[in-house]
Amino acid sequence: MVDYITFSSLARNCGAFVVFFQLQNRCNGKFEAAVDVEDCFVNRRFHYNTMLNDIALIKLKRKIYYQPVFLPRSVNHQERLIANYGRRAEIIGYGVTEPEGKEPCVLQSAYVQIFSRRYCEKSELNKLINTNFKTLLCAGRVQGGTDACQNSCSSFTFKHFFRKIDVRESSDATEGDSGGPLLIYTGRKYYLVGITSFGLECAIRDYPGVYTSVAYYLDWIKQTIWKNKLNN
After folding, report:
1. pTM of the prediction?
2. In this predicted structure, what is the pLDDT of residue 35?
3. First-to-last CA distance in the chain?
4. Residue 95 in contact with residue 163, Cβ under 8 Å?
5. Predicted local distance difference test score (pLDDT) of residue 142
């Protein structure tokens, strides 16, 4: 049984994590369940310097039942989901809501636009990182202002699990939000299309947040589940 898909850097420290379910307010500690992580499976092609192949699977020590999030069936299916929903996606989590601000007690959410591969590769961000967006997505707002703040490439912090930021006047993913979801809701289902991976600064014009494209790794996900008997 695979319970979570997240980013590779966090999974390398997975023994230290506990997953909380229905954590409505993390400041008062009220939640429905807390489950220890049993094992993590990091993509062997993950490259720490380039952040390519930034994906991992997490297995919990016991079964837990909650609202499922679906995976796209293929790269083409994911592209259709993104196009049909107007390239609009949701990011969620407990990240800070303003630069240098305090982490919120209540779960935050924000909507971002998923940009085309051409836009991502021509962005000011890619002039600095010079990467191929075949396995990546980038998202934010053209004018800046909304972002899920992820870790920067040069300075990683791993203490925040599935963090997410909702900067109302500045929206994108940075600073410790890595591993969180980029979701599309359609047909009464949530689809996981991206995993928050990295970014430079937060919510700045022409510097979108970068996400691992889930559809590109469907074969790896299936093979990892089969090899490790994770569906038991």
Report:
1. 0.81
2. 83
3. 6
4. yes
5. 75
Rounded CA-CA distance 24/108 in Å is: 10
pLDDT tens, residue by residue, 145-199:
566 555 433 332 222 233 333 333 344 443 446 788 999 998 889 999 999 888 7
- Look at residue 157 in the predicted model and tell me its pLDDT: 29
Contacts of 83 (CB under 8 A, 6+ apart): none
Give the CA distances from residue 1 to residues 109, 174, 214, in Å, rounded to whole numbers and listed in that order: 27, 30, 18
CATH of span 4-227: 2.40.10.10
Give the residues across from 34 on adjacent strands.
20
**Given the structure tokens 């993950």, which residue do they identify?**
46
Please tell me whether residue 188 adopts helix, strand or coil conformation. coil
Residues 6+ apart with CB under 8 A from 55: 5, 6, 7, 8, 43, 46, 195, 212, 214, 217, 220
Cβ contacts of residue 225 below 8 Å, gap of 6+? Answer: 2, 57, 231
Q: Could you give the percent of the chain with pLDDT greater than 90?
A: 29
Q: What b-and-e string marks burial along 112-136, b requiring 16 or more CB atoms within 10 Å of the CB?
A: bbbbeeebbbebebbeeeebebebb
Q: What is the torsional sign of CA 17, 20, 23, 27?
A: negative
Distances (CA, A) of 191 to 52, 109, 156, 185, 213: 22, 16, 27, 6, 12
